[in-house]
Amino acid sequence: MAKESKKRSEDLFRETTMTFGEHLEELRSCLFKALLGLAVGFAIGLGAAPHVVPFIQSPLTKALSEYYQTRAQERIEANLEQFRQAGYSLPEDADEREKFLEKFFKQKRLLFEKVYVNPREVLRQLGQEDAPRQVGESPAGLFDSDDLVPLYMWHLLDDDDRVQTKSLSAHEPFIVYIKAALVVGVLVASPWIFYQIWMFVAAGLYPHEKHYVHVFLPFSLGLFLAGAALAFFCVFEPVLKFLFYFNDALGIAQDIRITEWLGFVLILPLGFGISFQLPLVMLFLERIGIFDVQAYLSKWRIAILVIFVLAMFLTPADPTSMILMAAPLTVLYFGGVLLCKCMPRRSSPFEEIGD
Questions:
Q1: Residue ranges of E strands in the chain
Q2: How far is residue 221's CA from residue 209's CA, in Å, rounded to a whole number?
Q3: CA distance 234 to 236
Q4: What's the DSSP call for residue 166?
Q5: CA-to-CA distance for 17 and 11, rounded, in angstroms?
Q6: Which end of the chain has a smaller Cβ tally under 10 Å, C or N?
């Protein structure tokens, strides 16, 4: 019986062990299938790109709108007496005035420009002032600079050039269109791409380990999409506010190109989606006997240090995005430990082979 058991175990290992060349062939096959799926997703994205580009721009447009509305509100507070002299009725109490201005800018979606005019010259242009200007006469000779009065001209926020992304070359919009199609292609093809990745992993496993792949695959896809969604809906806004603060503090005007923003959109969600695979990787490594719960708990300080270092490389060069990635990853690390504890390996994988 012992000989038969040993022979059966040896046959099992013989059938499932792959050479280095076979691993490379399997990798080539999975990569080709994944790229084929990406090509199909990209073809779908070419049709959806015109609708996706405005959606991708929305976090940037929203952040720019709030930035310039806040600056307009601060300018009103700084020139409060001039606004009142110009006929604007504003609350006396500072808190009430702040609430009033926030509500005003949010509802009306207006911005203003401050210009200086000479009332006499305005009346002259309207034909209500005598003594027309002589030909060749200098405008500076008609009035003194003290005659100028401030005039506040309002316009719609959506029509302001500063809140609109710009292209600086003729071919740039076409590149944006292609990149937007690629974003859609990655999202559409992500189930198939993840399937091929896990199939490559499964090819190097033994039969008693292969069923883990089918369990982990849907969770892996869900975590990827959750990470990408977190980056798009929760991370972009605070990161942009942080970066705009430095622009304002250094006196640098905002003039953001659409291709630069799209590159930011591509990198950050992808980094979040990949990093959110952490709990499944931990559970998978525990399942195949490489680590256990005690090892994860004893090395948690080193793990958190590694998380912050990886977050630094997977995000742009600002501390806000790094912290916003590292914080949920730290939670996911301990979530992975809890997952391993709640779903423990029933026996050693090597014991299963010897049975």
A1: 110-117, 149-156
A2: 20
A3: 6
A4: B
A5: 10
A6: N
Q: Spell out the residues 6+ positions from residue 216 whose beta carbon is closer than 8 angstroms to its own.
A: 198, 280, 283, 284
> Which residue, among 184, 277, 187, has the nearest Cα to 223 in the 3D structure?
277
pLDDT at residue 10 above 50?
no
User: Where do we find the tokens 């499944």?
Assistant: 280
For residue 277, the SS3 value is coil
Amino acid in position 313: F
DSSP-assigned beta bridge partners for residue 52: none
Q: Would you call 153 helix, strand, or coil by DSSP?
A: strand
DSSP codes joined into one string, 96-129:
HHHHHHHHHHHHH-EEEEEEEE-HHHHHHHTT-S
pLDDT tens-digit series, residues 187-230: 889 889 888 888 887 776 667 667 777 777 888 888 888 988 88
Cβ-proximal residues to 194 (8 Å cutoff; 6+ apart), any chain: 217, 220, 221, 224
110 dihedral zone (left: phi>0; alpha: psi -120 to 50; beta) = beta
If one compares 165 and 195, the residue with the highest pLDDT of the two is 195
* Cα 281 to Cα 144: distance, rounded to the nearest angstrom: 75
